[in-house]
């Protein structure tokens, strides 16, 4: 018998970022991090282990992946097979409701959904912590997408100690994130490549680890106190200091484009005019704007005028992993 299991996971946006791996095999980060899971961007993945298959079959957005493109998916499946003592190949079908490889963390939702669907299809009943550890082996940020709301990923020092847990999973604070899709094309420098270059060559990398420790210690009580200004100031400064690592690497690289810089300036202009909002961005040109729900009309009106309505997406705090 072949039982298909479907899981849904939402993407997350790091408010305090990790940017650098300590162990690329176990996907252990150099630092801890903290994120917000979003409701508008998600991945649905269905997995079935089928004894008639002679190899894993992986389809993403209705496109069959070749052996090279599916290697990270097969790696997670291998981990599940080992844990479940079930050597059967699997059929995987995944649909991303996220622009892929453009700084909107499609890999986070993709591998969190894969971990949830594959583990249950193999007959495993993993705890949330163990699902977080499994998802991490496919994509570091996926470890946080197992949970909803504000989530902290503990860097740890080995496979067992590196996992995420929620700080505030059911968010009642009226905050939102406006995603500006400035460029949905695949980025030229992958997150993995960029991290390796920054860790190896940026003279500022040792200071970055101190920055993250400081920012984590400051942002967690601010979130618990619903101190919007402090959270906004920390996430914006943290993002800029992460991107300083890209500009100070050898060779230098950047995820910004002209539209990114213009959108940053527009956020600063709105803030100067009394609209409280702060920006962040990961490995891609697309800006995310942290704001309060009451200020959404002013922010969205301005950016829809500048970019067009389809490029401005409003998201709110989202849920954790679920099964369909």
UniProtKB/TrEMBL annotation:
Entry's EC annotation: 4.1.1.33
UniProt xrefs under NCBIfam families: mevDPdecarb (TIGR01240)
Name used for this protein in its record: diphosphomevalonate decarboxylase
Pfam families: MDD_C, MVD-like_N
Organism: Levilactobacillus zymae
Annotated Mvd1 C-terminal domain residues: 178-309
Domain Diphosphomevalonate decarboxylase-like N-terminal positions: 9-164
Entry similarity comment: Belongs to the diphosphomevalonate decarboxylase family.
Gene3D superfamilies (UniProt xref): 3.30.230.10, GHMP kinase, C-terminal domain
Keywords on record: ATP-binding, Lipid biosynthesis, Lipid metabolism, Lyase, Nucleotide-binding
Lyase recorded as keyword: yes
